[in-house]
Design brief:
Layout lengths: L3 E9 L28 E2 L1 H17 L11 H6 L11 E3 L2 E9 L5 E5 L1 H13 L4 H8 L9 E2 L2 H4 L4 E4 L2 E4 L1 E2 L1 H14 L4 H4 E3 L2 H10 L2 E8 L6 E11 L5 E8 L6 H12 L6 H12 L3 E3 L10 E6 L8
Parallel strand pairs: 5-10, 6-9
Antiparallel strand pairs: 1-13, 1-15, 2-4, 3-13, 4-5, 4-13, 6-10, 7-8, 11-12, 14-15
């Protein structure tokens, strides 16, 4: 049973293609989406695989020497093959939090919706990190309202925000401003505080379905250097600046007692942490700030920034 959970934020730096396979629709290679909302997502298996690979690179560079054992990656992430023991760390699917949309004023805006924020709140409750911000926005007396902006002067023209070719009459909200400022400081993304727009759920759904990037690519014949037959295909990408989040969860280490005691004695030295706390600390201390997720790494796609939620009681 996983005993500790922490939110991890993911900001897309270069367009990200976490593919769902081939499709017979308009786009040949669409991105992964939730079945019931059609909102973009990144499968937890993709998240775990990319993070594990980044940790294996650290092991190759001998940056994990202080832990004193060679197989700590398998101990935390589970063995590559076989069923000797389970992983001590788990990840949820990455969910959408903020989606960038072209704006007539301010170049682009970050859109979200009441449904997205409600799910964000519930995930914070699961990870027991809600208390830190409850006093600001998520208590029962104050709810973030739809069709509000965090900064009228930076986004609006005559009380309207114009996103793509659509104009929305919006209000300024102190609650939305406060939420945007809190999130901006938490993630270290300055633009959020002046660019946040809360739209109705159905409108938000339309934007995340219709305003993703679709790139047409071709396949070149290596012998002739020309296009191979009718080898045109289209790929869908999450645009740069998209902000998502997922939960990282840690459990005690799964090993037989005699073997576990020997390994933990070596790993934890004189530390007084619980096993799950050791696993979470290991993850936080060694998680790279930037990793590559999804396909097309060779053409620079999928570079993403990661940031773990920090609380006052966290080990620094």
């Amino acid at each position: 049973m996983y005993k500790i959970a922490k939110p991890v934020f993911l900001k897309v730096v270069t367009p990200l293609h976490a593919g769902s396979g081939q499709d017979l629709g308009i786009v040949d290679l669409p991105i992964q989406r939730e079945r019931h909302t059609n909102f973009p997502k990144i499968e937890s298996s993709s998240i775990k695989g990319c993070i594990r690979e980044s940790f294996e690179d650290l092991e190759k560079e001998n940056k994990l020497e202080k832990y004193g054992v060679d197989d700590i990656i398998s101990l935390v992430f589970g063995p590559e093959s076989g069923d000797v023991h389970a992983s001590s760390i788990a990840f949820t699917d990455a969910r959408i939090l903020l989606f960038p949309v072209k704006s007539v004023k301010g170049v682009y805006a970050y859109i979200t919706s009441p449904k997205v924020l409600e799910r964000f709140k519930k995930d914070l409750e699961i990870s027991k990190t809600l208390d830190g911000i409850k006093k600001h926005f998520f208590d029962k007396k104050r709810k973030l309202k739809k069709l509000t902006v965090s900064n009228r002067e930076k986004l609006c023209i005559s009380e309207k925000v114009i996103l793509e070719e659509y104009a929305f009459e919006v209000e300024f909200s102190e609650d939305t401003k406060g939420f945007a400022e809190w999130l901006s400081a938490l993630l270290g993304i300055e633009e959020i505080k002046d660019k946040l727009v809360i739209l109705p759920d159905d409108v938000f759904g339309d934007f995340v379905n219709l305003s993703t990037e679709v790139i047409t690519r071709i396949k070149i014949n290596p012998e002739t250097g020309t296009v191979e037959g009718s080898a045109l295909f289209t790929e869908e990408y999450l645009p740069s600046e998209t902000v998502m989040y997922f939960l990282c969860m840690a459990s005690p280490i799964f090993l037989k007692k005699d073997k576990k005691e020997k390994i933990l004695k070596e790993l934890m030295k004189n530390e007084k942490f619980s096993e799950e706390k050791f696993v979470m600390n290991f993850f936080e201390e060694n998680l790279p700030k930037i990793i590559q997720i999804g396909g097309n790494a060779t053409i620079g796609k999928g570079i993403s920034e990661l940031k773990v939620w920090k609380t006052e009681g966290d080990k620094q």
